[in-house]
Write a structure and sequence with these properties.
The complex is a heterodimer of chains A (112) and B (115). Chain A is mostly beta strands. Chain A has no helices and 11 strands. In chain A, strand 9 and strand 10 form a beta hairpin. In chain B, the strands form 2 sheets. In chain B, strands 2, 4, 5, 6, 9, 10 and 11 form a 7-stranded mixed β-sheet that branches. Chain B has a 4-stranded antiparallel β-sheet with strand order 1-3-8-7, with no helix packed on it. Classes of the chains: A mainly beta (112), B mainly beta (115).
Chain lengths: 112, 115
């Protein structure tokens, strides 16, 4: 069965600093992996997804994630945080029946 | 192109009352989903509909029923609301739930409080 673990429910960075949000997955088949962002009082929006075409995936708003099979990880990074990046971020893996399995979420705080 | 719309945005119920949450999508998607979001638990799938005419239980279906009214609309019904159903409910849709790295598109959510 597939599962996702996000390490750290809250991450705080200063504006301009590196953002690193951690996601580890468990899957018995080659996974499809997703990062979604949720701004306050809004629905989820796709940031990026891994489809096995390339291990480094670039998404919207300057975010990217690297798929590392040996580490079963799909961490999300952004070189320089902006105040507008403050949101909750969810990692998800697609199950073999097509359903998305979400991690618990990581709230990103950006300090001025 | 509105994407995924949900009504109502907010609702307060008393224990035992019933209500239906409405969801519609205008992207001609085949698959639709209902999730609930609770603090520290991420999103959990309640029910989904892989295609028009079919529905299946997700991770937390107890206390809920669904209807796939047509290709566009997928409603979620609480027959007898309980305080444990206080949550934020999200509807989502995707082209097809069974093939490839299918992206799900989410509505803005319904914030439900059961007193």
């Amino acid at each position: 069965a597939q599962s996702v673990t996000q390490l750290g429910s809250h991450v705080s960075v200063s504006e301009g600093a590196l953002v690193l949000l951690r996601c580890n997955y468990s899957s018995s088949v080659p996974p499809y992996l997703f990062w979604y962002v949720q701004y306050p009082n809004q629905g989820l929006q796709l940031l990026l997804k891994y489809t096995s075409a390339a291990t480094l995936v670039k998404g919207i708003n300057g975010f990217e994630a690297e798929f590392k099979k040996s580490e079963t990880s799909f961490h999300l990074t952004k070189p320089s945080a902006h105040m507008s990046d403050a949101a909750e971020y969810f990692c998800a893996v697609r199950s073999n029946t097509g359903k998305l399995i979400f991690g618990q979420g990581t709230t990103l705080q950006v300090k001025p | 192109n509105a994407g995924v719309t949900q009504t109502p945005k907010f609702q307060v119920l008393k224990t035992g009352q019933s209500m239906t949450l409405q969801c519609a999508q205008d992207m001609n998607h085949n698959s639709m989903y209902w999730y609930r979001q609770d603090p520290g638990m991420g999103l959990r799938l309640i029910y989904y509909s892989a295609s028009e005419g079919t529905t299946d239980k997700g991770e937390v279906p107890n206390g809920y029923n669904v209807s796939r009214l047509n290709k566009r609309e997928f409603s979620l019904r609480l027959e007898s609301a309980a305080p444990s159903q206080t949550s934020v409910y999200f509807c989502a849709s995707s082209v097809s739930g069974t093939r490839g790295p299918d992206t799900q598109y989410f509505g803005p959510g319904t914030r439900l409080t059961v007193l």
